[in-house]
Amino acid sequence: MTAFAARVLRTVRAQGVVSPGARLGVAVSGGPDSTALLLVMLELAPTLGVTVDCVIHVNHGLRGQVADDDEKSVEALSAACGVGFERVRVDVAAHARRHGCSVEAAGHRLRRQAFEAVGQARGLDAVATGHTLDDQAETILMRLIRGAAARGLRGMSPRRGLIIRPLLATPRRAVEAYLVARGVTARDDASNRDLTIPRNRIRHELLPLLEARFSPRIRESLGRMAAHVAVDDDEFLAQASAVTARFEAGEGAVSVPAGAVAAVTRPVRRRVAQAALAALGVPASAGRIERLEAAMAGSGGPSVTIGAITVSNHQGRMVVARAGGRNGPPRRGIVGSGAGGAELLPGQVARLGPWDVSADEAVVACAVRPAGEVAIDAEQVVLPLAVRARRPGDRLRPLGAAGRRKVQDIFVDRKVPRASRDTTPIVVDALGRIVWVAGHVVAHDARVTATTTRMLLLTLRPAGGAV
């Protein structure tokens, strides 16, 4: 085993991001980082007891023939390594125009959706990306410059949903040395030298300056800081979850026992405030979080108005409400199910045969829910959701399960009557991934975790029943 592989192995084991028997995809752009990632994961696969199932290459449609050449190069590399190849072509520029975001943000979003889609189709347990220690340092500096709160300084996580980052503790110089030692030449992306892109200015100007004038190990220092912040943030989130588990949501309002809010420290209360804003669908800016936290702490009197939000203490419960908030979740009508299923957005109810399925934004982490209700991580699914009947070959990874299972087998195990199986609602996201077999199992990748900040509550009721 090479020294580089041994270093990555230590990181992967310390992170605990993969388990023996896992099927992995590797995201490869053709650049040095992702090329090295593919080679080292193939080197480590026998030791880790995992299978590198495929290479995933996303063509962003931005660089014409150069991008097509990158795609061909990665396909050839995959073939040489004896690994399956999945190409995904997206139009990043069109997405950026349509959604009013930067090309960089559009690319990030579409890549993530591509990884999720391929992961679903091939039954992958994880998709590895080539983010290095240098990328982590750049991310932290970008967030510092933009005035991020402490939570933003935890940087990228070793695992986020389906995505894992085995090289996150490895500097780019070690990656480059590994490729030289193996006699491998990677593709060069000229856009990485475009200094109109903020990250590139940090990479080529700010980090070298900090390294030369202040600390030759600035990247390692920032990486250590991110790891320490992550430990603290996880603890704060766990404490906040104990409070948000006691949230009660209504139409345009969420409430929690005032004593539970008063009993926690200010950092925990900030996270509770952020969760309350997420439950109400209100953008959680740093200023709004700070003002809401102060109001929750009792600063400003029994009733405080923060823009369109009102905070009040009513009969021992802290109530955070939007203007005009009442007692039940907002509804935009019941959508009937057609051949392709019924679209389901937050605030809607979709009907399939004798059942209604509703979706509501809510903060319900760690709450005990009846069988007809589940909470999912809203950031792990792509909206809109849809409700449909089962289809041949439907599969998902049930919560806590080691691998994917057929919906048919779940019905058999749970003794669901044959007559009821075709009318049991299946909730899927916009990529076609099963999120919930209503009333039975929720998908593992959509589960609520300690790092979840935005949730959806899915509820199953008899058609026409009280909502």
If you had to describe this structure to a student in words, what would you say it looks like?
The structure is a single chain. By secondary structure, the protein is α+β, with helices and mostly antiparallel strands. It folds into 3 domains: 3-229, 3-Layer(aba) Sandwich (Rossmann fold); 251-322, Uridine Diphospho-n-acetylenolpyruvylglucosamine Reductase, domain 3; 334-462, Phenylalanyl-trna Synthetase, Chain B, domain 3 (Phenylalanyl-tRNA Synthetase, Chain B, domain 3, 3-Layer(bba) Sandwich). 39% of the residues lie in helices and 21% in strands. It contains 14 helices and 23 strands. The chain has helices at residues 3-15, 32-48, 64-81, 92-99, 103-122, 133-145, 172-182, 198-213, 218-244, 258-262, 266-279, 286-296, 407-413, 418-421; strands at 23-27, 51-59, 84-89, 126-128, 159-160, 163-164, 248-250, 253-257, 303-306, 309-314, 317-322, 334-335, 342-344, 349-352, 355-362, 373-377, 385-388, 395-396, 405-406, 426-428, 434-437, 441-442, 455-462. The strands form 5 sheets. A 6-stranded mixed sheet has the order 3-2-1-4-6-5, sandwiched between helices. The protein has a 5-stranded antiparallel sheet with strand order 7-8-11-10-9. A hairpin with an 8-residue loop joins strand 18 and strand 19. Helix 2 (32-48) crosses helix 7 (172-182).
Distance between the termini: 60 Å
By secondary-structure content and strand pairing, the structural class works out as alpha+beta
Alpha plus pi helix count: 14
Low-confidence stretches: 325-340, 363-369
Binned, the helix content reads: 25-40%
CATH-defined architecture of the largest domain: 3-Layer(aba) Sandwich
In CATH terms, the superfamily of the largest domain is HUPs
CATH overall fold name of the largest domain? Rossmann fold
Strand residue percentage: 15-25%
Shape: globular
Care to count the β-strands?
Answer: 23
How many discrete structural domains?
3
Strand order of the largest sheet: 3-2-1-4-6-5
